[in-house]
Amino acid sequence: MLLILGQGYSGTFIARAAHAAGQQVLGVRRQGGEGLIAFDDPALPDAIASASHILSSIPPDSSGADPVLTRFHGLLAHHGGWLAYLSSTGVYGDAGGAWVDEATPIGSGRREARTEADLGWQALGATIFRLPGIYGPGRSALDQVRAGTARRIDRPGHRFSRIHVADIAGAVLAAMQQRAQGIFNITDDLPAEPRHVTEFACRLLGAPLPPLLPLDDATLPPMARAFWTERRCVSGRKLARETGYRLRHPDYKAGLLAILKGIE
């Protein structure tokens, strides 16, 4: 059984892919539901003990601690199955726009809590998947353009990596089936400036371009503004090399076209 701790947006796609592959799946959220149990359900420790595969996508909480490690570290430390954690490429910090890969040191950026969680799961022997900006159906530049919330910020050379949520599911499932170990970046092959993604989405929809604003003129909340303090391009070659998985959406153009056509 695959136990998904934190079955949110990405976790739901992973669950769907695992079901399609014939896997039994149990998801965990704050509140239970069909095929789900709550994080505070007294049955969760037994589910952890009996699961053959465990994947956590729960981020650090407001105190900076990983809720899963805080509560279940002992159980996980003695678990004999496959453990995995969805981390963030934010742990690499600012690379000045240079390329980073799984051998790049972590912990120099603003994501201190995420780095600690990443290291904590590594200490348990978990497979670590580091993810950049996630997009997909219902959460893409197309949706922002349609909603009138898309922005274009003029920040030449400020490129970022992305990943379509269906490729997160495909990559995790491929690694799980092979019981792959280690650290893997799951990322597309075309880091790009956010404005270029918005402009492509506008062209696809035949929509007018939002105004091009300097960063200092854009009204952004502190978390969003902090996003612009770091630059890096993330390599995902190790994933293909060691698991054989090939991205279904290797760049944002392919991904947005697929979303527009209703293809996952």
TrEMBL record:
SUPFAM superfamilies, per the entry: NAD(P)-binding Rossmann-fold domains (SSF51735)
Keyword vocabulary terms for this entry: NAD
Gene3D superfamilies: NAD(P)-binding Rossmann-like Domain (3.40.50.720)
Tree of life domain: Bacteria
Identification of the protein by name: SDR family NAD(P)-dependent oxidoreductase
Organism field: Sandaracinobacter neustonicus
